Amino acid sequence: MALKKIHKISTNFSGNIPITGSKSETNRLLILQQFYPNLQIKNSSISDDSVVLKKALKSNLQEINIGHAGTAMRFLTAYFAVQENREVILTGSDRMKERPIKILVDALIFLGAEIQYVEKEGYPPLKITGKKLTRDFVEIQGNVSSQYISALLLIAPKLPSGLKLKFKGKVTSVPYIKMTLSLLHKLGIKYNWKDNIITVLHQLTIDNKAIIVESDWSSASYFYSLVALKQNSEIQLASYKKNSLQGDAVLVDIYKQLGVETIFKENTIILLNKQSPINKHQTIVLDLKSAPDIAQTIAVTCFGLGLECFLTGLHTLKIKETDRLVALKTEIEKLGGDITITDETLYLKPSTEIKENISIATYHDHRMAMAFAPLAVKVPIQIENPEVVSKSYPNFWQDFDKITS
Asked: Which range of residues forms the domain containing residue 208?
């Protein structure tokens, strides 16, 4: 088993890191580019997930294996459902076969798609026979993964009559839905979101368009954590916008509570920790339903600072690369923390010690590896299977080492 040993980071650090384009934006644009080939994508993500999606879209194979790439599974299910005269078996890793997809499949079948479960009902692999989907209305629960909703919205302009998507109940992952709609808007595709119905109009072609993908905010979170854990530190990251489409841009406000100031300068952000020691008696209370991907980073930062925190809105973490809530509890407790979880919440008690040289299991989950790495500011730590970071941020260890050594 590969193991990365990180010595305690004793010196102050500073540096400038260019971060790869957002995986979320890139993957949406890759699907849209298939429908509108005159769309140019610049600063694409180099993450495994985006590479896998790009490869799958170019593949002529009948069976396509997307490994651990959850976004690719959801987006490709909808994409292949509308590829007329094409039959595909879409499969993935053992973990992917445990991640539910029934809600999306049911919606597509309601629209007229032909999809069958190859093994277990409600889960990949799927046999998809592409055809023209003639219905233009479907209902879906509002509190499901935004990837199901975005998968439907991305194919909507290519449906003969467009699509009316009605939500049942409260919509949770609003920023990611808004990201998808904003990218449609940039291509000139008309949509309307009124009350609980999104309407996307049919559009056959678009004008020539080049879109520059903003860098990934969730990748920035690990550097926010580093700066929060180390006083008098400064890191500059590129390329970021103040008016971001990404839900994880809430990092700016969240980490202000944890001692990090964010300065926007042209297309970069400067993260500064010049403040007096943080108030150890405060409790960090956050609802992360709109940005669940940064929950691991925040929990580890709070643990490293000895802060109490209560995080809610985490129900989607149970169906990620691993059950992230269970994984967080297991690994923080190995380090000496006291943590309680439910199906959608995490409560961390304030701690006074962090055990040294603990080996952190990563569970095939890129975010586990990257979220725990900044703790090296406090203690030497070891990360198992460090190569998992390639799923979203292949250059993470080079960038981390550059900043901290």
From this structure: 23-212
